[in-house]
Amino acid sequence: MLINIKDLKKQFENEKLVTKVLHGLSFVINEGEFVAIMGPSGSGKSTLMHIMGLLDRASEGKYEFADRDVTTMSDNELADLRNSKIGFVFQSFNLLARTTVLDNVKLPLTYAKDKKNIDDRARRVLEDVGLGHRLDYFTNQISGGEKQRVAIARALVNNPSIIFADEPTGNLDSKSGIQIMEILQKLNEVGNTIILVTHEIYTAEHAKRVINVRDGLIVEDRPVKNRRLAHDGDLLK
Ligand SMILES: Nc1ncnc2c1ncn2[C@@H]1O[C@H](COP(=O)(O)OP(=O)(O)O)[C@@H](O)[C@H]1O
Ligand SMILES: [Mg+2]
C-alpha cells in the first residue's frame, strides 16, 4: 500500500470561522495505480491532494504514506519525505520565470542527496517529455503545453514514488491537454503511480480508477471501463 487513508477529515480554522471541507474519507492506493480524483469545483479535491501530497495535514483520521504514519511526523520529516518521494504538477505550472527550462528541472535536485550527474538526469527527463530542443529557452519563451511538460519533467527528476497532478490540463488548449494526458498515461505504463485531480469526466476517464468526491465525501470509487487513450504526436517513445 502506498497510500492508506481512513476516516480522514479536514477543517480550516481562520480566526473564528471554521470551514469543514473533508468529512471522513477512506481509501487505499497501491503502487502503479493511475487514479483520478474527480468532483465539481469546491468539492475538496485540492484539499485532499494537498494532504495526500504532505503539503498539509489532516484534522482527523489515519494517513499512512509508504507504510509510515505521517500524522505524527514533524514538519521537517514531512518535507524530507515529500522532497524525496513526491512529484507535483499544478494547473498554473509554477515554473520559475527568467530561468531556463533546464535550470527549472534541476531545481528539485538541489535538495537531493545524490548530486551525481544532475545535468544528465535533468536533460534525460526533458528528452522524455519531448523537450530536448528547449533546454536553454527561458520559461516565458515557450508555450503553455511546453510549460506543463517542463513541470512534469521537474516532477519526475527525483524519481518519485508518486506524481500528483492537480488540473494539469486546466490552462491548456485541447491539443496540448491531450499531449499531457498521453505523457501521464505513458508514465503510468512504465510503472509510475499517478493521481490526477480533475473536475472533468472526459479527463478522468484517461485514468484507470475514478474516486468521485462531492462535498467532501466519496460518492463513488470505481475502475474506469473503456478507458480513453490519448494519442497525439509521438512523445516519450
Ligand atoms: N485555506 C482554506 N481556508 C478556508 N477554506 C478553504 C481553504 N482552502 C480551501 N477551502 C475551502 O474548501 C473547499 C474546497 O476547496 P478545494 O479543495 O480547493 O476544492 P476543489 O479543488 O475541489 O475545487 C472550498 O469551499 C474552499 O473555499
Ligand atoms: Mg482544486
Keywords summarizing the entry:
237 residues, Rossmann fold, 4-stranded antiparallel beta sheet, disordered C terminus, binds adenosine-5'-diphosphate, binds magnesium ion
Brief summary:
By secondary structure, this protein is of the alpha/beta class. The chain is 29% helix and 28% strand. The protein starts with a strand and ends in a 14-residue tail after the last strand.
Question: Can you describe what's shown?
Answer:
- This protein is of the alpha/beta class.
- It has a single domain, classed as P-loop containing nucleotide triphosphate hydrolases (Rossmann fold, 3-Layer(aba) Sandwich), CATH 3.40.50.300.
- The chain is 29% helix and 28% strand.
- It is built from 7 helices and 10 strands.
- It has helices at residues 45-52, 75-85, 101-106, 118-128, 144-156, 174-189, 201-204; strands at 3-14, 17-29, 34-38, 60-65, 68-69, 86-90, 162-166, 193-198, 209-214, 217-223.
- Strands 6-7-8-3-9-10 form a 6-stranded mixed beta sheet, with helices on both faces. It has a 4-stranded antiparallel beta sheet with strand order 2-1-4-5, with helices on one face.
- A hairpin with a 2-residue loop joins β4 (60-65) and β5.
- α4 (118-128) packs across α5 and α5 (144-156) runs parallel beside α6 (174-189).
- The chain starts with a strand and ends in a 14-residue tail after the last strand.
- 40% of the residues are buried.
- Residues 233-237 have low confidence and may be disordered.
- Adenosine-5'-diphosphate binds at residues 12, 14, 19, 21, 39, 41-47.
